[in-house]
TrEMBL record:
It comes from the Bacteria. Belongs to the FAD-binding oxidoreductase/transferase type 4 family. The keyword Flavoprotein applies. This is FAD-binding oxidoreductase. SUPFAM superfamilies: FAD-binding/transporter-associated domain-like, FAD-linked oxidases, C-terminal domain. It holds the Pfam family FAD_binding_4.
Length: 477
């Protein structure tokens, strides 16, 4: 049903009867947190919010809405960086929060799996795995509020992708409510299953445009019994990549994370985040954070860390380094990396660019993008940082001092285009781990046109022929 046509009368009454007073909210104060993204890029409207308590309620609510032609917007922790989880401004799209689907259904340390519902917060999933003596490795800055359903829908990456892969690599099975209300139960714990198409991979990364992920079987790993973290001042972008190669070549299985930070970014953290301080004596234009971990209690990671850093110091790739001697010190080193988004927020308006290139091209990416952005916006501050070990760099740009933030943000797409021109030339992607959402929907034709985009449209039309699932996201309206 087109958005400008009224909904059939009686839909609200049927939904209220189905979901009860806790499952359908319409008061402005209840709706407000669900109508804007956390970055404040978009502010939508909605007639009410659905909060089903389980997959059965969600299935029936989706069936009712499908019959009425009501568009639905899946929402997890609402931590999307690209406006992927909020309704549009029409006031007719219905947000559906899965926060109440928050049960830990099963943790099996023999199968090394956990079965969790979509509303489980990622940190809670990590804690449940740890309580069973296992590791759920997906980790990123928003893990305390992002939910499992959301991170699977966006195929989230994060800090440990270099070791464990993106969210997609951690999923064995899914439960999904389809756009017509039917429930597909694919909650299989099998490591090998070649029975037809691997349907779970359609829904992981689909950004809620094909259905509601309501539960998942996730892979677990042995917990780390030994770990080491080092914060290094390095001579250049190339030196950071060389340091990564040294650790990878020494023992690839020990590298849990490898993060790059610019001098400008670390300075922002030291200036704006209380309690954060540079842990090395040498100030530099470039820094790297190395995180090693092993499930073996006698892995000798400290010796490995010191040996590789000594080699890099002799080669003048590393200028200075600090190794965390305790869990608290390791957390403090990680905090410098994790506080980059907050420090940028406190420093002023910034344009975010979540891009990826082949790992070998990361130094060229950061150097060329920084030059292009300084030329495009004189006085601005490029702040590249992120997951150098897997080629995913957040090529952000901080506004010039004494510049109107709104005027700067009005140039967001111009700035993103400048970055994407370099990314394209290097054979990369304009969306590494944040997804497309609403912010980048207009670029899909350019980046994934021809047969690839045609296949995407055919899949969408086959599963959601009425186009009611998260309209305006991923694909342009």
């Amino acid at each position: 049903m087109p958005d400008d046509q009224p909904r059939p009368t009686g839909l609200l009454d049927r939904l209220q009867a189905l979901l009860g007073p806790s499952g359908l909210l319409s008061a402005p104060e209840d709706l407000a947190p669900h109508l804007t993204d956390w970055r404040g890029l978009y502010r939508g409207r909605a007639p009410f919010l659905l909060r089903p308590a389980n997959a059965t309620e969600l299935s029936e609510a989706v069936r009712l809405c499908a019959g009425a032609g009501a568009a639905l917007v899946p929402q997890g922790g609402n931590t999307s960086m690209v406006g992927g989880a909020v309704p549009d401004e029409s006031g007719l799209q219905v947000p559906v929060s899965l926060a109440r689907l928050n049960r830990m259904r099963d943790v099996d340390p023999v199968d090394m799996t956990m079965t969790v519902e979509a509303g489980v917060v990622v940190k809670a999933a990590q804690d449940a795995a740890a309580a069973a003596g296992c590791l759920f490795p997906l980790s990123f800055g928003g893990e305390g509020s992002a939910t499992v359903g959301g991170v699977l829908s966006t195929n989230a990456g994060g800090n440990t992708t270099v070791r464990y892969g993106n969210a997609r690599e951690l999923v064995l099975g899914l439960e999904v409510v389809l756009p017509d209300g039917r429930v597909w139960n694919g909650l299989r714990r099998l490591r090998k299953d070649n029975t037809g198409y691997a349907l779970r991979h359609l829904f992981v990364g689909a950004e809620g445009t094909l259905g509601f992920i309501t539960a998942a079987v996730l892979r677990l790993f042995p917990r780390a019994r030994e770990s080491e973290v080092a914060f290094c001042a390095v001579a250049s972008e190339e030196a950071a990549l060389s340091l990564f190669r040294r650790f990878r070549d020494r023992d690839e299985t020990a590298v849990r994370a490898f993060e790059y930070m610019s001098g400008a970014g670390v300075d922002l953290v030291a200036r704006h985040v209380a309690g954060a301080a540079l842990p090395v004596e040498t100030r530099a234009g470039h820094y790297a954070l190395v995180d090693l971990a092993s499930s073996r209690p006698d892995a000798g990671l400290r010796g490995m860390m010191e040996a590789v850093l000594e080699e890099a110091l002799e080669a003048e790739e590393v200028l200075d380094a600090a190794i965390g001697g305790s869990e608290a010190q390791r957390a403090a080193l990680w905090r410098i990396r994790e506080e980059h988004p907050e420090a940028q927020r406190l420093a002023g308006a910034s344009v975010k660019n979540d891009v990826s290139v082949p790992v070998s091209k990361t130094p060229e990416l950061m150097r060329r993008c920084s030059e292009a952005l300084r030329a495009l916006v004189p006085g601005s501050v490029p702040v590249p940082f992120g997951h150098l070990g897997d080629g995913n760099i957040h090529m952000n740009l901080l506004q010039p001092e004494d510049t109107d933030p709104a005027a700067f943000l009005a140039r967001s797409h111009e700035i993103m285009d400048a970055v994407n021109a370099v990314v394209r030339d290097l054979g990369g992607s304009p969306s590494a781990e944040h997804g497309i959402g609403r912010l980048k929907a207009g670029i899909l034709e350019e980046w994934r046109g021809g047969p690839e985009l045609d296949l995407m449209h055919r899949i969408k039309a086959a599963i959601d022929p009425a186009g009611l699932m998260n309209p305006g996201k991923l694909f342009p309206p």
